Amino acid sequence: MAPPALRPLLPRPLPFFLPAIILPLSLSLIFHPLVSTHPHSLPALEASFGFSLLAFLASLYVVPALGPAFVAKGFKGRDLLKVGGAFVPESMGLPIAAIYILLLMLFIPYPFTVPSAVGPAKTGPFPHEELTLYLSALLSLLTATLLGFLDDVFDIRWRHKLPIPIVASIPLLLVYFAQGGLTAVVMPKGLRGLFGTVVELGPLYYVYMSLLSTFSTNSINILAGINGIEVSQSLIIALSVVANDLLYLPLPRIDLPYLGEIWEHRGMSLLGVIGGEEMVRRHLLSLYFMLPLVGVCAGLLYHNWYPSRAFPGDTFCYFTGMTFSCVAILSHFPKTLLLFFIPQIFNFILSCPQLFGLVNCPRHRLPKLDESTGLLNPSQVVFPPSPAPPPPFRTVLSLEIFSALRLVKLERETKKEGVLSSSGRGRIRSSTNLTILNFLLVHLGSMREDVLTKVVIMIQIAGSLLAFFVRYGAVRLFYDGDRK
Amino acid sequence: MAPPALRPLLPRPLPFFLPAIILPLSLSLIFHPLVSTHPHSLPALEASFGFSLLAFLASLYVVPALGPAFVAKGFKGRDLLKVGGAFVPESMGLPIAAIYILLLMLFIPYPFTVPSAVGPAKTGPFPHEELTLYLSALLSLLTATLLGFLDDVFDIRWRHKLPIPIVASIPLLLVYFAQGGLTAVVMPKGLRGLFGTVVELGPLYYVYMSLLSTFSTNSINILAGINGIEVSQSLIIALSVVANDLLYLPLPRIDLPYLGEIWEHRGMSLLGVIGGEEMVRRHLLSLYFMLPLVGVCAGLLYHNWYPSRAFPGDTFCYFTGMTFSCVAILSHFPKTLLLFFIPQIFNFILSCPQLFGLVNCPRHRLPKLDESTGLLNPSQVVFPPSPAPPPPFRTVLSLEIFSALRLVKLERETKKEGVLSSSGRGRIRSSTNLTILNFLLVHLGSMREDVLTKVVIMIQIAGSLLAFFVRYGAVRLFYDGDRK
Questions:
Q1: Which of residues 55-74 of A touch B (CB under 8 A)?
Q2: Does chain B have fewer CB atoms within 10 Å around its N or its C terminus?
Q3: With an 8 Å Cβ cutoff, is B34 touching chain A?
Q4: Closest by CA position to B310, among listed B321, B320, B299
């Protein structure tokens, strides 16, 4: 008899009242700009919010509906951190990406035909340039989704996988090039003596941008391993980008009594008059991509939350990572985006010795479940004990440095077991794996899987708050006055 | 012991001298326009021809290289018309589409940045509108490819499959709409009394265009079943579109002695001065899509030719069908395109009783192999013999009509076997399946599989010649003077 745990979990039940509320709301937001005779200042943004709600609802219902079909075709994975290890549908990033891209396609007429009080549609010519960039971003997203799914199907080898984000960024970058896009970067103050205030990167700018795609894609992919972690980090980064975009939009003209002082810039952005229409357009474009992303991530997270009923798969990481880098390229905030990736950057740097072969990298580096307590412990990379030859010098060196920085916890052989290393300390027997998850478990102690996910979410939120501080507070240390 | 025939066939060997000739040629065509200080009249077309050669070469090498990986992941099909029925890699349309789309992405800078003697790039503003349409077509192609592959993976049910081409045409049609594209159709003479010369279809135009995508996609998909047939029909349609496009391009200024009369329109198109720059731009755009399609189809056909080493799969049919309809929509020749689909239209009409359930439709309708002679015979749909109830009236009626038109061959029960039908003829015992392949076998007699493929190729070529006659000869019966 097959063990019962190998059957897939039942899908998480859906609250029956949700569609009754969200569906009419989203449809009215979507259709209102089409029929309204008094379009207010940002009709496409209203529709985008409607599409975002629809994206949330669609993800909520499509993911459990397609789960069995995915399991039947072999897209399933064992949940390694559960007793019994139930099968969970894998690659659910594919329907998520499909919903997202379909809705972004249906959104095309809004910013590019409906008259708007902001942007060139009202007074100027047809916004071909923006539409072109929008389409090229969609092409990049679709390419990333297709290649991500092929990775899920064919288990592409690591070295063949690395250029995937670069291939996916080709349409966006070539269109950017064909339109003669900016390739200059504003330098922080400290570097201006060396490089000047604005550095024209030329072709190097395209290298910088494709590295950005590679980083944003892979850094989400490697901060994985526990339920809900890929999706929740994407959700928080998307919400952070949304918050950043909102700073640049004109505020609605609402007269609030007693708040005259704060609201004196009515009709202007929260940041005051900075950058003008061009800046508003860029951040609107970013919102059109980010709002539906928030929707699909929230919908998937409902099913991906501990205990997980759906795994996102590589497809999801390629798709969201590419969305972030597309938006950063289109709306010209690559450095701000990187600030929202602080936990991912930390995790990447921490992972480097294992990614680049200085330290053994096992297939899975996720934490270890203690079945008796139900708590997670740090997982370890174990070296063959004496009398086997000791780990090579590069391994010992990187681990000793990381240990001194309290990033990993080493176990050493005692004197009687083996020989002392040259430093007089015992030879390294094992090290915790080099990921932020194990790092947290080392410092905060064993905890349940969902608690660990919540801790990472807190860190991601703290990272975003720090990013805003750096961007709009501490930025005066590095750049002059108001930044555009 | 497993029967040896279940091992996949060895890949067809590749002539070693081919890359040595084609690779330098294609690369020089691709790079020449970038470095040439004297760009001739059509630099992007030169590059497009280079990309087309590269597409051919890449398909030739990539298909056999990926075959084993596809077979390993279950993308394989038994060749039903071979003794033993060897396994053949399936869904090879996916790498073909990937090569094609990647090359079309890399092609973006050519028509849209390199100065050209034709089109607005030389004198006017940046050709945003064309680039936008180009990108939306790429989006449609990529969507069709992704959905086609999902069909290959998940075996999507027939009724869920039908809207796939409509979904894939959304980006193209919405961009066409956002740009305020033409929605008028020029009527043939006979219908002008009823509808007027030019009919403004309005929203119906979009219905017409999505039906075009559905037709071009599915009509290739149902004219299938023998080695090489899907790919060769796509190749011939693509070559026909290329020939049609070339009629509109300015002729190179070559002074040929004794040919003054024929070449008096030097610098003009083969059709004389018709339509001007706008017409040239449209047909150049069409060529940019069709030339690389010819390349990939030719490359795949080499491996797909009898006895087939690679099957194209649904992915291929979705991808090529969508390419044809995109080009017809972008370059405004939907009616001309349909003329190149004469054999597919015949096959579709012939198939209708089986597609719409009037006559039983078995899973496979491909011809039947006579293992003793190696020849193909028409396959049959057999009805339960007496005393089972006779086939329903709708089945009998459609088969009797088709039989009277000599489109199918019926077998009837003799008098002593069963009762006579009301017409006095024996009850229908079986009919040949309603496809053009069985129709040909009924009329031309049994033949080998590759001979049947060649016959269909001849018919497709004859259909295209007829199309050119109707379009440029007989068109005067239906339309006034020179058509634009």
A1: 69, 73
A2: N
A3: no
A4: B299
